[in-house]
Amino acid sequence: MQHVVSMNHVSHVYVTEREASLAVQNIHLQVRDGEFISLVGPSGCGKTTLLSIIAGLIQPTEGTVQIEGKPVKGPHPKIGYMLQQDYLYPWRTIWSNAIIGLELRKQLRPEHEQYVSHLLEEMNLSKARDLYPHQLSGGMRQRVALVRTMATRPDVLLLDEPFSALDYQTKLQLEDLILQTIKNHKKTAILVTHDISEAIAMSDRVIMLGKNPGRIRKEFVVPDPIRNALPFEAREATGFHELFREVWQEFEAMDKEG
To answer: SMART domains from the xrefs (predicted)?
Structure first.
């Protein structure tokens, strides 16, 4: 299976007037076509930095990043980036928020508008298209943010803690809906999360980063019974609790190392 995302020897240093700090070091990561992986690790271990590097928003200090075999040298049209906050424009309707990426790329053609309408329908947002963001719940706003991200048909979706600001029930419902949509559209996805259960329930692989600087500490392959279920049911699937304990114990071992 083809590697859609490939990171080789990636390190990054943040430089300020006072100091230089090594955020991530010697990262090797390959993500296959259609794969869903999660990045977990302690705060400050460089998870979001890695997403920014993959997206072409940051050029790594060392190493290379490739999307579908071609070097990333800046913001990449095949990458869609969904953040923790929805960043919807309050003066625009849900429809006009959803199509803003197409507007900016001058791609607002009938076939693309039809695709956005289809995405809104999949996300149960068709009746909300003429409403404004303040009229929607947090979960609905995040669904609009996903539609906006997918409207330009990226091959790779980067998800930076998109559920963390939501209540638990909404989060569980949204996990199922978003994962189903991503798989239906055969997208490759990389999720950053602090939630071990979420990482296991949604992913094919869980990549744990160590701290100071961030390095890949361990990789966990998610068993088929979990991968083949939607996240809500995956939490009760065979092997889920055993894998959760394994990941948790690795976190505890990291804490003891200081």
So the answer is: AAA
